[in-house]
């Protein structure tokens, strides 16, 4: 693939001209790049290496352990879809950050601001809704998973107090770093630990699967299962959903020009983990594989370690997603030290974040079938935010006719991938919701 991703297209066809305004930036935040473009202040930004860990921790997530089941649904053809989704998500991740700079005047701050620049207030709020759904919905599911895992680990002991109380404990654990840290740079150390945790779980599942292969009989595999193929495509596509945090991850980098390398390296690492998990998992357990895959491996110490480490991972990934949401809200409300002073700014920021954590905990506890409801909106949100919106916004901001034919063809294929996942993922989620409420 010879797409030229490093050249920033500064043409502003269809972009509304006007005076440069800095309302979204405090005086301390305004800075100028070498090209005269107004950028955020990066004097205290982190390294590209830390940004790489942010990408890996957010994207890899529990998708690492769900892909063997996706192959069970769709067959071995899912490996091809995995490669396709990987390359497409790298491309759209780069385009999304290009859109932040596409007006040639100042760096936009958020996904919502990009959408507003393209399609006005309505487009901005629609995008913000999808963005917020993922940034809050995924942590809710993570908290529920953490509570269930912790209760399972304490089974038969005094610590077996129920999944709900353990979910509340998980909220408290998550709240501490979420309230204390202010930016994506400060939460990067958690990303590094989360990335290592994911690798440990994948290795455990890989080793135990190889051992189980010697004791298991013949298992069934399919090259392709056409009736379930669209659902498998949706599941695989969702596994590369990091666009919701990319603007804030890039903002935390000292060298923003390294972003194409960071997102490519991060998503390639995730793809490598996916292959290590999906291929052996489906090969060994076939049509009996479960999600998450560690539910399929033999009982014993390795399985317990896998559950412990994955619980640690979701507890480290949750503050990253919540921090990205909080930064969007604080940007919209203009919560800055310059405006309120250091103490008052901290109190306002802490209050907003405490409310966010309480909201996450309450929704996870009281909303029935939230996982299937999350899948329903996620079908729209993830496919739109990953495969469709970045390309539409990029063409809107920089023009369509000035692109080479092969790039337009690749963009059309990517949008088609997003639409297929959106349509069939939505149908599947609606069917699951109907079945849940009937039962």
From TrEMBL:
Keywords: Amino-acid transport, Membrane, Transmembrane, Transmembrane helix, Transport. Gene3D superfamilies: Amino acid/polyamine transporter I. GO terms for cellular component: vacuolar membrane. It comes from the Eukaryota. It is found in: Membrane. It holds the Pfam family Aa_trans. The chain crosses the membrane at residues 49-70, 76-97, 118-143, 163-181, 188-209, 229-249, 261-284, 304-325, 346-367, 373-395, 407-430. It is a multi-pass membrane protein. GO terms for molecular function: L-amino acid transmembrane transporter activity. Residues 46-430 form the Amino acid transporter transmembrane domain. Signal peptide: none annotated. Belongs to the amino acid/polyamine transporter 2 family. This is Amino acid transporter transmembrane domain-containing protein. It comes from Parasitella parasitica. The lineage of its organism: Eukaryota, Fungi, Fungi incertae sedis, Mucoromycota, Mucoromycotina.
